[in-house]
Amino acid sequence: MEKHVTTEEKRLYQKEIKKYITFFRKSYERAHLQIDISGLSVKQAAARIKEALEMFDNKVR
User: Fold this and answer.
1) CA distance 61 to 54
2) CB of 52 closer than 8 Å to CB of 37
3) Cα dihedral sign for 25, 30, 36, 41?
4) What is the spatial distance between Cα 31 and Cα 52, in angstroms, rounded to a whole number?
5) Where are the domains of the chain?
6) What is the pTM of this model?
C-alpha cells in the first residue's frame, strides 16, 4: 500500500520511528542472543534462527 504524505506528516512519522528505535535498542542490547536475518527469505530466516537457538541452548546446558 502506498500513501502520499505531506512534509509535516513525514516529520511526525520520522519522530515516532526514532522513539521506537530508541526504545527497542535498549531491549536489543540486553538480549542474550542476536540474530541478523536481513536479506533472508522466510525459510532462510527460520533456519538461521533455529540453528542459533540450538547452539545457544547447547551452550547454556
Assistant:
1) 11
2) no
3) negative
4) 13
5) 7-60
6) 0.55
Rounded distance, CA 28 to CA 20, Å?
12
How far is Cα 19 from Cα 13, in angstroms, rounded to an integer? 10
Map grid coordinates 547447547 to a residue: 58
DSSP three-state, residue 5: coil
Residues 37 and 46 sit within 8 Å (Cβ to Cβ): no
What is the residue type of 15?
Answer: K
Handedness of CA 44, 47, 49, 51 (dihedral sign): negative
Query: What number is the average pLDDT over the span 49-57?
Result: 93
